[in-house]
Structure formats: C-alpha cells, structure tokens
Amino acid sequence: MKNAISAGEVHRQYSQGVDAFRRQIGDAALRERFGREADIFFRACALGVWQRQGGPLTPLHVEYYNAVYARGNPAPAILFWELSGAVAEYPGFKPPEFFTRMRALDKVTGSHLARRFIDLTTLMLLLFASVDGGVSEAEAGFVNSCADALSALCDADGLAGEKAPLDVADFVTPSPSAAPAAPAADRPEGEKKEAVEEAAPEPTLEELLAELDGLCGLDKVKADVKSLINLVKVRRLRQEHGLPVPPMSLHLVFMGNPGTGKTTVARLLAKLYKAIGVLSEGQLVEVDRSGLVAGFVGQTAIKTGEAVQKALGGVLFIDEAYALASQDNPNDFGREAIETLLKAMEDHRDDLIVIVAGYTELMGRFIHANPGLESRFNKYFYFEDYNGAQLMDIFRAMCRKNGYTLDDKAEEYAEAYLKKLYEERDENFGNARDVRNLFERAVARQADRLAAQDHPDKEALMALTQADLQGQA
To answer: Is the pTM of this model over 0.70?
Structure first.
C-alpha cells in the first residue's frame, strides 16, 4: 500500500482526464450529457476493479471512490460499509448510454470520439487499480475485458480506430512529483521552467456587463447586479480618498426555481467582482450539501474547509443551501457546515464571497435558522420563472450557439410547446433546464435519424425538424 498515490492525486488525474476528453466533444448536447453522466459510469467501473483485487477493502478505497468526480459535479460521500456492499453486488460491466451517442456521431461525422473514450476508460480503470500500489492480473483482465466490450461495439459499427495510439498525456497532466524535470540542457532555448499556457486577456467590466445584458429575461436581477456593482465601486473610491465607509456584506441570497440562471449570474458576478478589484481571482466554486457535509463527526468541518480553500479569491456558490439546515434533526452535520462557513466568512472577509441559492420559501427558512446567517446575508436577488416567449428565445439561442437550424414547422411547434409548458407549469417546472432537455432530445433524435443516411450534407447536419422535437420516428 505504501506505493499507492493519494486520493487527492486520484481526483486531480481523474478530473483532468475527464475535462480534457469533454473538451474534445464538439456536439454540445453530447458534451453536456457526458459531463453529467461520466462520474456515475466511472464510479461503477471502480467497483468492478476492486471486486477483482483479491484483498479486503480499506479506508483508502473509500477515499478513492469519493475522489471520483469532475469539476462542477457533486462529490460523492460514500461510507465504508456502503462501498463494501456495492463492490460485493457489482452486477458487471455495462457500456454507458452516452457511448451509443458517441458512436452515432462518429458514424455521421467521421470523428473518433468512441475510440478515444475507450482509451480514457482504460486509463481511468488502471488509475483505480492503483489503490494498492499495483495492478493485479485479475484487475488487468477486467480492464481489458471492458475495453474489448467497447471496441466490439465500435467494430460492429464499422468505426475506424485512431491513426495513432493515445498517450496518458492526452488526458492527464503529470503531477510535478510524478517525474523528474528535464535537465536544462535538454530544454529548447528560452523555455521556462514551468510550462504556462498563454493566458487569455481578462474580460473588461464593460464586456462583462454586456454579457449580463445579453442574458434572456432577468430584468430585475440585472438591475440589482448593476446597482450592487455601482455601490461597490463608489465604496472603493471613498476608501481611496480616505473617506469613511460603512460596513457592508457582499454575501448574497439567490432565490428562485431551478433553471432560472442563478449559477450563470453567480459566475458573472464573480468575474465582475474581480474586474473592479473586490476579488483577487474571480473563480466560482459550486457545491451543494454533499460537497460540504461528511458522514462522521469532525469530518464536515474539514470538507467544508476544503471547499472554502478552493473558493478563496472568488465566490463559493452553495446550491440548495437550505438542505444544510435540517429542522427535524438538531444533530445533523449540516449545522457543523454552517458554523464552519460562518467562521470562514469572517476569517476571509476580504477575499471570499458566499452566495447561497435555492427555492424562495425554503431559503427564507434557511436564513432564519441561524442568527449568524441573518447578519451576513442581507441582500436578496429574486429570479422569476421564464415565460413562454423567453423560453423560446433561450431555445433559439441554444440552436444558434451549437450550429442547428429550425424550419418553420419546427419553430411553430417549439413555440407552442414551450408556451404550454409555462402556462401549465407546476412544482417540477425546470425553466431553462426544460429547454435544454428539449434541445438535447431533439439533437439525439436527429443523430439517430442521420446515422441511417450514408452521406448527410451540412444543411442536413444542422437542421432540427418538427419530428426531432416531437420524438417521432
């Protein structure tokens, strides 16, 4: 076990590998689906690897499993007994559903996504096998059988393989401690000691405000954001001139239903705060209860502290924050997370902003659950539901951004569908999420339709029809 890499290194290599592959997916709907479902698939693969290791599970297996999540997705929080049961009951390898979409896309476009995914899967399974410092014959056999099962599907489709074999570096950036640096004499002249990608220019305040204005709807939220930015700018000018500045909390409460743009606005706000000098980095770290709360006494403070450390210099965005304040169980670990957050907000008041978000009614209860929350969160942004016309604008924007077109019948159907969706909305109404679901389903149906054609032209590849939107054959 002494040669096993740390769980933190597993997370780094896994998230970098998945992120690198996701960036290679040109189809937006497939890219979003892969990002949402890849963690579930790979965690299932880890169960299969460990079922064949030939030895007992250890706490390190639990740490490895909980490290398998990509950026933007919630981190798992499995317990030892839960993992033991899952490994024992592992049903066998099953190709993910998004792999079918990859093969269909490869057949239409001539790309090699499916073959590259097989390489990624092989690398990730070998990474999971390293929990005990090596790869056993049984583990290697399982990895090969998984790769063979995926390859057989590609062979049946007649999909060509990659012209050149992939290397680990295609997916994972080596850790600085993983290999010695090349001697200076072997480096090209002028090369720096650390390879640094050329940084893209930082967006200006005007560009960020224009991006805010470009969001569909949200008129009240846009006005509130601009007013807040103006207030902060004037406060900083007063400070520069030695004038007194009354205390002010920049932590925010976002209230509204799912899919109303809360995360998008939070990400923009983080960049805006950096542009005016309030934050040093301007990144957004998004978590929910599972990203803050652990299953044992004392671990929640550590887990919450790690999230805070990642967010320093930027914004910590806590979605469905009301789940931290359980009214039914006074001993719930969510309260420990709240107390840790409050202390961090005090300790890092100059370089950390926390935004909590969730349903309007539930967020009100959350803020009133702790006096410390009431004192630190005194600014509320309300995100209204999108109406039918706004939902249609969002749908058109998705189509334009991803290179799809709508004919007249498809346009009429989408308008009527989204209008009815809004007028008959209930507690499950997802706003822009419902629009994204409509778009993804249409793109998937289009891919199924075009995969049966020999050589679809560019116009056909772009066109979404009424049948694609309705789900007709």
So the answer is: no
